[in-house]
């Protein structure tokens, strides 16, 4: 009953995408043993997005290597559209694809509602040590893998060396968040900002990543039981106190939202001097801040304690198999090919930031003479960018969970947290407390047992 209640509530909150659901399976799902099918013969339906325009070639390569299996790819457009369509198909009991691409934070919500299968039965758990810890850990539910990572997004520190030089800041010397704070004061003194945070919905991922790195556990999920602790958790206190100091001293631009036109303008004219963001950012800087070519650099995240090497994940996507699929064995072959086999190599060669350790440590990935690397390295003043990013991806990460109703958590974040940044109506602690209450109330409406601290 609880699963049904969660599905009905989730569906009511999302728009219906019947055209996609019609392109999925007619099965209502069932025991996984009865739904394995023939591992070597199947007609698979795959939902996802294709930002790199490489999926057609990847599927052709897979089909050539597996002549008994065909894959029909339905481009869902965006990650949100995919989640919406899958939610509707699960609620309807039919129409889901065999394989689905999801953003990492949404995997838990579909695992909880039994819309995805545990991949342990196909040997996925044995692949754990092959992946960087960050992306792997995000895809577990009750200690079992429900998806395999396509890519990863370890957080790193990007900074504009020209702006730092003008402010008298040595970017390479910023090793701790205390160093970062002192640098922010110098950057502000010349009229620029160290970074921006408006508390918008677009800031949700940076929030989870930075709180994660601070050791925060704002929520914990244990099956049907959820604990919300937005202000009393030690890591959250550390994160909130630091951010409030930046707000109070006008060291962070609280008006400019991530991914807006103004954001790109400020990165391009030097108003914003740095970003802590995922390792997928270089191409976005190259496109959004072309006037700063040669000025940007990348470094590891500042640490809360000097000498530590703690990282966090900001973004990422994965492949999962739906419980409605009657061709799960063949579907797993396809998933493993794209995330662990030759398909993963192809995606890395075409710009996807890898999650596999063998790719992160390969000579090809960090080769400064590789054409794709040369272009990026030139923009970053000759720095070997992938060398820094590969190190970040393999740094240890603390445990972190996402709520099983992550889309609500993300949309509500802007409603509540913007009051501490953009409008300054509340302190960040007050805003986080109210945000926590909203998360707890929503969780109870979804049928969970929620403890609010």
From TrEMBL:
**Protein keywords:** Signal, Transport
Q: Which organism is it from?
A: Bifidobacterium pullorum subsp. saeculare
- Signal sequence: where? 1-21
SUPFAM superfamilies the record matches: Periplasmic binding protein-like II
What CDD domains does the database record attribute to this sequence? PBP2_TMBP_like
**Source superkingdom:** Bacteria
Its name, as the record gives it, is Sugar ABC transporter substrate-binding protein
Q: Which family does it belong to?
A: Belongs to the bacterial solute-binding protein 1 family.
Q: GO terms for biological process?
A: transmembrane transport
Q: Where are the transmembrane segments?
A: none
UniProt feature coiled coil, ranges: none
